[in-house]
């Protein structure tokens, strides 16, 4: 039996929830950028299962698209050859649907967060090319197939490039590419082909970090898109992750990435936006080189840091708005600072879910256009 809740009661509940966080009368980001691009965030398991209601309130109020931060990664959803763990991803998709968000699946093929056993046979030896392709096909058809019509965009291949634009020497490349120049794109081609077959209506993306800081890497992504298109494969967009810092990326670097990717005819998306407040240490997006403890930053809340953070966000959003014809989505990698993978103060909402100076700077950038 369906329980009915009076509409007025719901409205009061909703306003109450919105007022418990988010600085109340502040504008909703998805409304502010309504005419420009979708606005979203990476959602973690606590948020989608009701264990972090404040984060959920923020997400519902500000986002019209969401990405699963971890629960669709191979290791989480397919931990053993014959075992799938659907529950957390189901919760993510249900949460997005309830809140009418454009749902992003992250990610199908990645060198990281994939069990080593995927690449080995029973005796511990590397699989053959055909055997690994068969495993990849089964994974993609099963995961994409389960959410057919419900996950609207997929990061099909994640982080396949080196800084110099060549292909990363991952187990995917080593085994399926067989060291042959002619076969180097094969695993990527197959991933896009099978994802499309499993859900012909889903958008398909290539996603990577550092495209805005390394022209060579960005050129590698452009070459990859052109190659897939030359094979007649569907690729809708490229995700510039944009894990930035207080002093990077430069406007020139980001603009080069946006314009050169858009010139290939794909949509450009900012898929994992955050601004690291730490000024020292590792800068990349490789999580194996980052620990939350070593990146916690005692000066993150200092007014000077927050001002720099606001300025960098304003600069980035002004540029994104300039290129809004090519940019379809901007997704933050987390919801508020406590949920960030990186420590410090990298997002628009602080550890108490309150909007920071950077939030208002982003809103102002939209009003200025
Ligand atoms: O934010 C994610 C963190 O919680 C995970 O431990 C980590 C490893 O799975 O991945 C983080 O997200 C990464 C994303 O999936 C791909 N680009 C880089 C992101 C930050 O490391």
From TrEMBL:
Residue intervals of the GH10 domain: 23-365
Pfam families on file: Glyco_hydro_10 (PF00331)
Record-linked PROSITE patterns: GH10_1, GH10_2
Keywords per UniProt: Carbohydrate metabolism, Glycosidase, Hydrolase, Polysaccharide degradation, Xylan degradation
InterPro entries for this protein: GH, GH10, GH10_AS, GH10_dom
GO biological process: xylan catabolic process
GO molecular function: hydrolase activity, hydrolyzing O-glycosyl compounds
This protein's name: 1,4-beta-xylanase
Source organism of this protein record: uncultured microorganism
